[in-house]
Amino acid sequence: MAADRGLDFGTQIVFSFGPLGFLDFPGAFVIDLGRLAFAWSALVHLSFCVALLWASRRAFGLLVGLAITLFAAAMPSSDPILLAAAVLAAAALLDEWSSRLRLAFALGSGALAGMQLLGSLRAGPVLVVMALAVVLGLPGRRRTLPAFTASLVVSFLVFWLATGQGLGNLDDYALNTASVLSGYSSSMVYVLPGSWWQFPAFVVGTSTLAALAVAAGWRWDAPRRIGLLVMVAAVAFLMFKHSVVRSSPGSAGVCLAALLAIGLALAPHVRRSLAVGAIAVLTGLAYIGNQEGFSPVTFDFKARAESFITQLKYMAKPSGLAEQQLAGREAMQAYYALTPRQLALLRSGTVHVATLEAGVAYAYGLDWDPLPVFQQYTAYTERLDELNAAKLESSSAPDRILWENAPAVDPTFVSVRPYPGTIDERVPAWDSPAEIVQMLCRYRVEDWDDRWAVLRHSPDRCGSERPLRSVTVAAGERVTLPATKHDEALLVRVDGLGVSGLERLRAFLFRAARRHAILDRHTWNVIPGTAGDGLLLRIPAWADYPGHYALDSDTTAIGFEAEDASLTFGPSDLTLHFSALPLDAPAILPVAGAQKRRVQRSIR
After folding, report:
1. How far is 490 from 465, CA to CA, in rounded Å?
2. First and final CA of the chain: distance in angstroms?
3. Per-residue DSSP letter, 421
4. N or C: which end of the chain has fewer CB atoms below 10 A?
5. 96 three-class SS
């Protein structure tokens, strides 16, 4: 949607994908972009399969190599473009390539990395590191390094301008997307109970891969050995991080499958006996890690081929995608089920969709005008939170906000109170808390039901904050909330909850410790990077949003703790600053309140 509408990345839209991110998601949402995405995804998967077959054939012969390739390609994969690149990078470092081939590698890898810096913000930076490790590890770097740098810059700028971006938002793109990346390991931590085999499998898998890398680079000079180790470590580390920050048996299986693919890249460059033993171990781990997710079509390559041919026909047929697009819109509209009144209100101006389902704007053809971090749970740093708040304060604020009460559709969304649209057992009023305060002040309810609320931009109903008191507490210590007037909301800003010191290293290499807010009835996860932005605690009932959309925390006391206090805050390092926020108007517009009462009377 952002690419199709020409939104400026870095200013109007901030996400973990750039303006070419749509290439990773083939579909019929936008026909022309869908065709491009289908072609690119097919090319990436083909390159992945060819790279694995080339490497495994060199190591084990054609028949065995084909069998291993079919198994590896059937496993769930994350960032297959990186795994294909690992095969080529290992060959560039460990085979005797000519100077022309090395120059071609530098130019090609630079062009690919420049393009990927505008796609997945996970794959792009890792591709840069991998390519640099190869270029710096090979002879002739005085020629290939400038070629790589020039190709990277030219490719980035060409694709940046081709996607409708301008030079004016280039710095914002760099800074704001860097904030998305830097805050991930501290804020998106969520660990589901895993199987007993996960930790041993990681240890065995990474040790096996390390042994292959050392053996493959042993006979070469130091620059090549170091380049190989850096290249392998970069891609393997990304796969590891992908599996441990948001940890589940499924994510562990994806990581183990990736270790197998990286191992195949190294297998042609070690002794046959070592390659056989290492790949056997990695294949076994990939099977164990993914067996729970196997389906009847996992190894049914005939069914997979037929599915691909069907998709190809839809893509090639002039009306094929249009038919799929229409069917998709109708299915989405049936799922979202907006009422005629809600649609009429939303079609009278620009719309931001909170908190997750931006697809509703596509389904109904609404004038989508999102906040920069359009899924607010990803506004997990102070910088990103302030971006959203600034949009709501500005003259370009959207006319309406469509707010979904997600538990009305999915009761497992949260485990206790049916808050609208939160994830990971967070308090939704604290996801992008500065944004939520501005929404409370500037948007009032025009229509609502159990599923959706329509908020209209209105004059600011909040006054200046009034400081109340500051309290220094120990981790886990609960503080009684201070009193406020009948027309005031209560906020708290928390100092000392952020990731600092030794934990920064832990967050980079592994993940940060989760923080919890201790309320009267439940313990909720809390984001460390935005705890100082102003967390709403109490709102007078007359001034709060109605029903499930109420932002009041329903608590009389609050405290904060972490899973591992030794790596976070000490016994007296948390300071809670309480303040009062005056409110001078109810959250429900008079027309909406009267309309709702008429509906309730008619139901009775």
Report:
1. 9
2. 42
3. S
4. C
5. coil
Task: Round to whole Å and give the CA distance between 308 and 433.
Answer: 44
Of 244, 240, 218, residue with least CA distance to 229: 218
Amino acid in position 64: V
d(CA 337, CA 331): 10
Q: What is the DSSP string of 313-341?
A: HHHHSTTHHHHHHHHHHHHHHHHH---HH
Note the pLDDT tens digit of each residue in 520-533.
878 888 999 999 99
> What six digits make up the tokens of 309?
């041919």
Query: One-letter amino acid identity for 523?
Result: T
Of the candidates 82, 44, 110, the one whose C-alpha atom is nearest the C-alpha of residue 262 is 82
Whole-model pTM? 0.91
Q: Which of 540, 529, 521, 547 is nearest to 582 (CA)?
A: 540
C-alpha–C-alpha distance, residues 2 and 373, integer Å: 12
The two three-digit tokens of residue 282, written as one number? 């990695």
For residues 326 and 363, give the distance between their C-alpha atoms in angstroms, rounded to a whole number. Answer: 10
d(CA 380, CA 425): 15
pLDDT of residue 292: 83
The residue assigned the tokens 């289908």 is: 38
Share of the chain above pLDDT 90, in %: 73
| Band (373; pLDDT cuts 50, 70, 90) | very high
Q: Tokens standing for 248?
A: 């589940």
CB 558 within 8 A of CB 519: yes
Residue 193: strand, helix, or coil? coil
d(CA 261, CA 266): 9
Single out the residue of 15, 14, 34 nearest to residue 26, CA to CA. 34
Cα Rg of the chain (Å, integer): 27
3-state secondary structure of 488: strand
Residues 412, 257: Cα–Cα separation, whole Å: 29
pLDDT per residue as tens digits for the range 485-514? 999 999 999 999 988 888 889 999 999 999
